[in-house]
Structures are given as C-alpha cells and as structure tokens.
Amino acid sequence: MTLAVKTHSRTELVDITGEVQAAVREAGIREGLCMIYVPHTTAAVTINENADPTVKDDILKILNKVIPWDDGYRHLEGNSAAHIKSTLVGASELVAVSGGKLQLGTWQGIFFCEFDGPRRRKVHLRFV
Ligand code: ZN
Questions:
Q1: 39 Cα: distance to centroid of ligand 1 (angstroms)
Q2: What residues flank ion ligand 1 with Cβ within 5 A?
Q3: Domain coordinates of the chain in residue numbers?
Q4: What class has domain 2-127?
Q5: Interval 16-40 mean pLDDT
Q6: Average pLDDT of 99-128?
C-alpha cells in the first residue's frame, strides 16, 4: 500500500508512525516485517525520537547547517542540497512487527523527511 504525505516547508520531518501502524493493522499482519520506502530523490525516511518535538528540529537544523542550500553545486535544477540529504538519510527503513504492532522503542517514531518541499509525496509500504 501507499501513503500520501503532504509537506508544508522546504525541509520538514513529518511523523508518519500512526499511519504506518494503521496500515499494518489494516493489512492484518501479526508477525513479520514492515518495509517503509520513499520513492523520491529529494526526500527520505528515518526513525528517531518523537516524544520531544525539539529533537526533529535539531536534526533539521544540523542537516541544513552541514548541507547548505547554496554551496556552488553543479546540478542545474538548484536542489542539490536536497539530493545529498536524501542520500545521507536514506530511502527506506525496516521495522519488525509482532502481535500486530510495530516493534518501535518507547521513544521512537517514523519520520518522512522532506528536503525540497512543499510537495505531495508518497511512501510505499510492503509487508513480509
Ligand atoms: Zn534535482
């Protein structure tokens, strides 16, 4: 199945944990794996703390500092920073499912990472 994600800023981390868990429930998966795949070259997916929202702010702050939007890049489309962040963060995550629940740690959430928004994006989910 595929989730639709609408982003609102150039860089943004969107918590999609609830949507992914709902998809696992809907698919009737009790034991197995959930693959979360982002089919975009300027976006990514990551797992990190979703208890304190300042953590995602800090992650974005440092990514934006380390990889500035303008830095004499060669790519003519002008969004090389987004491509680089996408590669560093990665296009997929794999989470174990047990008892019908994602086996995330207490403080973990799944974040869609927008690096060239705002846009309408997709996240593919596959179950094993
Ligand atoms: Zn580009």
A1: 14
A2: 77, 79
A3: 2-127
A4: mainly beta
A5: 98
A6: 98
